[in-house]
Design brief:
The complex is a heterodimer. By secondary structure, chain A is of the alpha+beta class. Chain A contains 4 helices and 4 strands; from the N terminus they run αααββαββ. In chain A, strands 1-2-4-3 form a 4-stranded antiparallel beta sheet. The longest helix of chain A has about 60 residues. Chain A starts with 5 loop residues before the first helix and ends with a strand. In chain B, the strands form 3 sheets. In chain B, strands 3, 4, 5, 7 and 8 form a 5-stranded antiparallel beta sheet that branches. A two-stranded antiparallel ribbon of chain B has the order 1-2. Chain B is an alpha+beta fold. Chain B has a domain of about 160 residues: Alpha-Beta Plaits (2-Layer Sandwich), CATH 3.30.70.60. The chains are: A alpha+beta, B alpha+beta.
């Protein structure tokens, strides 16, 4: 005679069945929720984005058509704006020789006179200055060494003296280079 | 023994499983697994790829919003144009860089300026080769293109005789007259030297005057900025310029369709 413990097996099966159901239901529920959530999100987001794109395009088209309907005014607007921008750029590119000469004359003390100016080297201005006597020359050197003349100077960043020569008439010719600010 | 095995085990979906395994649970598990597989299939092939599409659509929307904002900005500038710059002044600005260019008119303008400046006489002038007889072809020494407007540069080399001060006056007049001209090449060293030595003696000098022509291309109306305060300052300055004449036609070319260029070239 074979004795089978049916009670313990049933109990085990019952317990196992419960756990399996809980785990399977939970996992499936979570996955199902994710599926539904993601699907809804995509569908709604696509619909909302598409509708916004349509709305934006429609508004753009409406503004464009209003502007294009007044073609002459639009042409005037485009040309006026671009011409003004072009002239502003041209003015910026213009070599400001008059301003540079004015600034140079401000640097020269009494007794010193601008003799020659050469704008040939890009970024530099070569010039020679005639000083009446040694005192005027020292004034010129002091003026060039004076920091106040360079701090806040709009056009030049520094000066380099190349040579100082005494002439037969006891005047002094100083050749120097002024570096243009970029 | 064989009897024991038959009693303790059962066959579910072809699998031999212990007797205590619940068939309903197995069926539930299989149903859920199949459903999950179906959902996973849908996710992999239909839902997840849509995230890329959504990202693209959102980028498209952002671009659209940006474009709309700049279009609204352009529209605002467009609406305020007459308010900011009266129509008469607009015409003045347009005459600064006209849409037509005629070399003979340009020379005529320079001669007029010279005649209005005491002591200045134009000895000779040189135009870039091909300008006078090019007909309708767009020919200029240099082309500068922006998105909407192409600017053609037309240099004229002049040999001028005048006392130094008159010469400087002439240059100033050229640069403050309309159409807008730029004196782009001056022998400054010579001027400075002579300015020191004499103010009455006439000198002969070669200078280059650059005139410009504006040609309207295809216009992207969302890219037009509003008239800025800096522009208004320039407009004010241009109002003080002397209007010497025109290069020819004064009509404003209409904004063209995206396929073609518009705007006539020469005024004759």
């Amino acid at each position: 005679m074979i004795n089978v413990n049916l009670i313990s097996k049933k109990s085990r099966a019952y317990k196992g069945k419960n756990w399996t159901r809980i785990v399977v239901l939970s996992l499936f529920g979570l996955f199902g929720l994710y599926f539904v959530g993601v699907t809804l999100f995509i569908v709604i987001a696509m619909a909302v984005t598409s509708s916004n794109i349509k709305k934006t395009n429609a508004e753009s088209a409406s503004i464009s058509s209003i502007m294009l309907s007044n073609n002459e005014k639009l042409s005037r607007f485009v040309l006026t704006k671009t011409i003004l921008t072009k002239i502003t750029n041209l003015e910026k590119e213009k070599f400001r020789y008059k301003d540079y000469l004015d600034q140079i004359s401000l640097l020269l003390p009494e007794g010193s006179l601008l003799n020659t100016v050469d704008f040939a080297n890009k970024g530099w201005i070569s010039l020679s200055v005639i000083s009446d006597d040694l005192f005027a020359l020292s004034l010129l050197e002091r003026s060039l060494q004076d920091k106040d003349n360079w701090v806040g100077n709009k056009y030049f960043s520094g000066a380099y003296i190349e040579s100082v020569n005494r002439t037969k008439t006891n005047t002094y010719i100083t050749r120097l280079q002024l570096e243009l600010k970029k | 023994m064989a009897e024991n095995k038959i009693i303790g085990y059962k066959n579910i979906f072809g699998f031999v499983l212990p007797d205590w395994v619940d068939e309903a649970t197995i069926r539930l598990l299989v149903t859920f697994l199949l459903s999950s597989a179906t959902m996973l299939f849908v996710l992999i092939f239909f839902i997840w790829p849509r995230f890329e599409d959504l990202a693209k659509k959102r980028t498209e929307l952002e671009r659209g919003i940006e474009k709309l904002a700049s279009l609204k900005n352009s529209k605002q500038g467009f609406d305020k144009l007459s308010e900011q710059i009266p129509e008469e002044t607009q015409t003045l600005v347009l005459s600064a860089i006209p849409q037509s260019y005629s070399p003979e008119n340009a020379v005529f303008l320079l001669r007029k300026i010279a005649s209005e400046t005491s002591g200045v006489s134009i000895v000779s002038y040189k135009l870039p080769s091909g300008v006078l007889f090019e007909g309708n072809d767009k020919k200029a020494t240099e082309k500068e293109e922006t998105d909407m407007v192409t600017f053609l540069n037309y240099p004229i080399r002049l040999v001028v005789t005048a006392p130094v001060n008159s010469l400087l006056d002439f240059i100033k007049k050229v640069e403050t007259s309309l159409p807008f001209g730029m004196v782009s090449d001056v022998g400054m060293q010579e001027i400075t030297k002579l300015a020191k030595s004499t103010t009455t003696k006439s000198i002969q000098m070669e200078i280059e005057v650059m005139y410009y022509q504006a040609l309207v291309n295809t216009v992207d109306i969302s890219k037009i900025d509003q008239i800025s305060p800096q522009d208004l300052t320039l407009v004010k300055a241009l109002s003080g310029y002397t209007k010497v004449g025109t290069f020819g036609g004064s009509d404003v070319s209409p904004v063209s369709d995206p396929n073609g260029l518009s705007g006539s070239l020469f005024g004759f």
